[in-house]
Amino acid sequence: MSVGILAIVALIPILLALVLMVGMRWPATKAMPVAWLSAVAGAIAVWNLPAAYVAALTIQGIITAIGILIIVFGAIIILYTLQYSGGMETIQYGFQNISRDRRVQVLIIGYLFAAFIEGAAGFGTPAALAAPLLLSLGFPPLCAAVMCLVFNSFPVTFGAVGTPVILGFKYLTGLVDAAVAANIPGLNFHSMEMFDKIVSQWATVMHLPLIYILPIFMLGFMTRFFGHNKSWSEGFAAWKFCLFSATAFSVPYLFTAWFVGPEFPSLIGGLVGLGIAIVGAKKGFCVPEKVWDFGPSSSWDADWTGSVSAENTGEFKAHMSQARAWTPYILIGLILVITRIPDLGLKGMLAGVSIPFKGILGFGSVNASIKYLYLPGTIPFALVALLTILIHKMPADKAAIAWKEAIAKMKNPTIALFFSVALVSIFRGSGIADTALNPNGYLSMPLALAEAVSGLAGQTWPMFASFVGGLGSFITGSNTVSDLLFAEFQWGVASSLSLPHQIIVAAQAVGGAMGNMICIHNIVAVCAVVGLSGKEGMILKRTVWPFLLYGVIVGIVATIMSFVLYPNLF
Fold first, then answer.
1. Are the beta carbons of 410 and 73 closer than 8 angstroms?
2. Which of 12, 368, 431, 485 would you call most buried, defined as having the most Cβ atoms within 10 angstroms of its Cβ?
3. What is the distance between the alpha carbons of residues 117 and 376, in angstroms, rounded to a whole number?
């Protein structure tokens, strides 16, 4: 069967999810089971995979989803604990003293604070933490979710202490070594470690225009679609603070990537940028003279809100010192850093503790595990939530209410994630190199899609390479997994078209990061923590536009870099 037909079959579950959630406004709890069924049908009828093998892949996906749900629950319990302890209102009071302007607040929290968390933890953690914080400050839940998802893009290439680069490209090691030995033209690296560093450097160059453009565009987007006057210009009016924040982030971000490596660009950039932006906002540096707000919640569209209401009272009270209120977030940041740096020893210790599921339904290639101590949902989220009860001196009855409400919020995301991650597992497992399971030797569903697209693109591939990375994140929910899926494919396209390998692979790394905006896993997770479960399609409908903008600009940069920096290849 031709790659084109395979690609069409593989595309059906994705199109179904999009049409049902965006076009027909189905909740993910209904749309994803249908998309999963279509993937099952394609796997059995077209790929000729055994039904038992498909069932094993489904179970594998459900086990993986449990790990994601632990992260979601951890973020929710932190939010509710802080709400009932009085810590969240104290933080709100403190932010009013920094700036009452929603444009400034979203840049500090959704852009810089989230970048630091992404650099430390990754895996959807930033949106799950930052969106509830914005919600509690008085942002419409839909706006908080959209802004945090979109801003969780440029830091993701270096998220979780560089995991998407360090782990995501591990399957390229043999190809890199062979290319170095063969002295292929256009290579300026002599080892896998050097290749990772060069890819990181070029990835920052591709991200750089969006680090400046995206905040300005998204503030205009926010004031246009969530503002009382429906005006783009009100958001654009904060352009000076956007450029100030972007520079505060990008300078340490670029320096770290170019002179240190892929582990710390987002973490250092987010931390340094956050400190500089807060000091600047307090002093009124580059802050617009006229304060902008959403207006009273009574005037908001019904679609903007869900089961968790925004605290839009306008005035807040400090129930404790700012230091004590922020202690849970400080602890989260410190614990994430300490447990994610391999040299400190805790990462290996925590990651080594797991509940393994080997040879699911008798298939040796289908395995899964739940690293329950390494997941940020347990350490630090749930751990810090328990510590917060003591730190904030919460009454036992309020702590019990917080945990009860957090557990109640898990129903809808559980259903949606079980089926969406099971679909991903089928996608990834469909191309197994085992003739007994894959008798026709077909490519996996994602690779069939990617190969069909590359065949149409030809020498214009640098313009589209990042979209393949974005597709990988959309399907799998992870920049790291997108790189694992498509890095070898991107290398092969670069070889066949005589394109610079390091540029094309860097575009893959950037694409996997921008795909976080439209990733179903992340959308379901953030909907859960801001009370918008069932409205995933509305968010996807809004995040797809900045995703396309990101991809077009990255494509232009990658094309220029390919043909200008390496003209000898053509």
1. yes
2. 485
3. 11
